[in-house]
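Justification of resources, computational component.

The compute hours requested in this renewal are based largely on the per-chain cost of generating structure records like the one below. Each record pairs the submitted sequence with a full structure-token output. That output is archived, and it is also reused by downstream analysis tasks.
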Amino acid sequence: MFCSKCGQPIQQQAHCTVCGTPTGLGARIGNPPALVSRISRHLQTTGILWIAYAGYTMLHWLLAVTVMRTMLGSGHPWFMGGPDLSHMPFFGSWIIPFVTAILVLRAILSLAVGIALITRQPWGRTFAIVVSILTLIKLFTGTALAIYTLWVLLGPNARQDYDHIAGNAMAYR
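The structure output for this chain reads:
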């Protein structure tokens, strides 16, 4: 028999050991339903949210670059342009590449975390925790996502649960 969500082979168990989806077998054979860990219930959602956050970051980059180019007097034809601030030391030619590098790096890290969690990489939990701590300073969306990720990945027995899920995922590849 195979899991209806992830397609992994399952034995006579109430939940898939890889993704945590209920199999319905526990009720039929009289076993009490097994407790599913918080990680197995929330790991897929957390990975998808990190990938969405990477796209959201790239949209912020487009907006920031457009606004900064307009402020620096090199606006797009559909904007009226703004005051020429390029002579000021803070608004020199280095600010747009600097903001671009920061936001693209954040998007790449977010995408890598999402992919690592969805594919259940053995190093994904540690990487997600580190990136979550770095993302805490990004107010509102970044902070909310980081807190949610830390809640999922730092619970009791979280390391063993994640290692079990990642080990089972690697065994079937």
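Residues 38-71 form the longest helix (34 residues). Helices lie at 25-28, 38-71, 95-118, 124-135, 141-153, 158-171.
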